[in-house]
């Protein structure tokens, strides 16, 4: 059989060899300063928007933006590779949303030791000062806003809460979850704690990984065990949409409050339609613009950005309640990100 | 022998053309520092792919190797950091666990006669779950220097070459010689070409199969150490893309998914092709989604070529 190996240099293989030429048209040959952007994935709309914002800001400022990403959320090795490749590409500044807040730190240190400005966007590293600066939503505050709102809406009714969380050990997920409980007035963990608090009012906790289908499954299972759930906290809007589908299929969508974080156009539209009770809106475009501005300032003047810059968060709800300031969903549609 | 060299030539030509292309696109690509960077980026998948090649040569597949690697790296970190074991003992412990995991795969394939795809699909999930449970999904930092030593570099002129990359190349040389020059190596090909004929020829086919899966487990243990060395942390989320990346590398390297045909050095070339695309496209400023797209197309073409060459 091995005598048949000759045809391996065959037409299909030759097509494969020609493939790189198809990509040649996208080649860049200028000497603009290079800014790198590393996101968690290139498929999550939040990061798609962030990348678009960064590309526009870089083009406006006369820089080339090179974007790279991990293959999936949690792919630390992929982000390490991206940092190395961006260093090889001559990037002077790197903006990164770390998939794993701890595991990425040694790779970031290498880049900073090489004189590259590194700014964390959206997700802090652990420790936070492993990057020069952090431009991000205050996730704990985002959680507190929706927690306060849910409590105000529920009033004196005893709370039976389900939480659809991110992935184990993820600071963003932990901060939103614990912030929500704190805003709701329940015992919770402080901002820096990377575990999820579970007071007795939280009857069901499930990791839905920010995914709509997993959110639906998690909610269905929670309802099986606890049909009397009246508040659902979700870590992001896709999982909230999944939870709503599950509640609707069970005929319970009217009596249950669903709150979430993100502020995407689809999510805000869900608030308008009543499929989502309230959401906390964050601003990925602003993170990207501020990041690119800081990178350009560093390239031009060698001045490094530092510390934490809160890129803002606002509570979005259809019906406002007394004592909890919120923006109406109609107004929020003008500020939302992603496809409308 | 000539035919086998030609089988190896296809992937090698593909790699060289890709390198030429990227060298023309970016002046930074064809530097010693960048090429050695690519080598260190592929060392984890490269070492896993040695075990995967052995298994695929026998006509099987190991979908669990990446997750077993993650388990190994967590066991090593846990023993060294939490339980205070001597780092050398922690490494041995991690490799022991991954080799046992490979043995379990092998026993399920040979004793209970389950299809390798199903067995390793199952153990992949089991290894993932155990990894999450024992690590509590937490990443381990502040590891003892011995665990990250392979991430250090030896300087050749002004090019740093990671010890881990050198270790990978040595392992490939070893695997190449063993597969080509020893009876055990020939038995692997015989079992993959025709299991029944190999059995009738007096080869202990179960022993060959069991060895292939155990060696794949051992490779996962070595890869675990390399993964720790590369990222300086024990990461429970690692290994998720490596499972299928190794299959990609093996297939791109010209080894037949139907077993019995292939050359282990091809898998190194296959891993390098993927690494070169990722690195080169990033240097050019092209989205890494294209790297995934190109890899997907190349895999289909490689398997199509294999199929086509069988019919010819």
From TrEMBL, chain A:
Keywords: Signal. SUPFAM superfamilies: Periplasmic binding protein-like I. It comes from Gemmatimonas groenlandica. The lineage of its organism: Bacteria, Pseudomonadati, Gemmatimonadota, Gemmatimonadia, Gemmatimonadales. Residues 1-29 form the signal peptide. GO terms for cellular component: cell envelope. Belongs to the bacterial solute-binding protein 2 family. The keyword Signal applies. This is Sugar ABC transporter substrate-binding protein. InterPro entries: Peripla_BP_I, SBP_2_dom.
Automatic annotation (TrEMBL), chain B:
Pfam families: BPD_transp_2. Keywords: Cell membrane, Membrane, Transmembrane, Transmembrane helix. It is a multi-pass membrane protein. InterPro entries: ABC_transp_permease. It is found in: Cell membrane. One of its GO terms (cellular component) is plasma membrane. The chain crosses the membrane at residues 33-56, 63-81, 87-110, 117-135, 155-179, 208-229, 249-274, 281-304. Its main location: membrane. GO terms for molecular function: transmembrane transporter activity. This is ABC transporter permease.
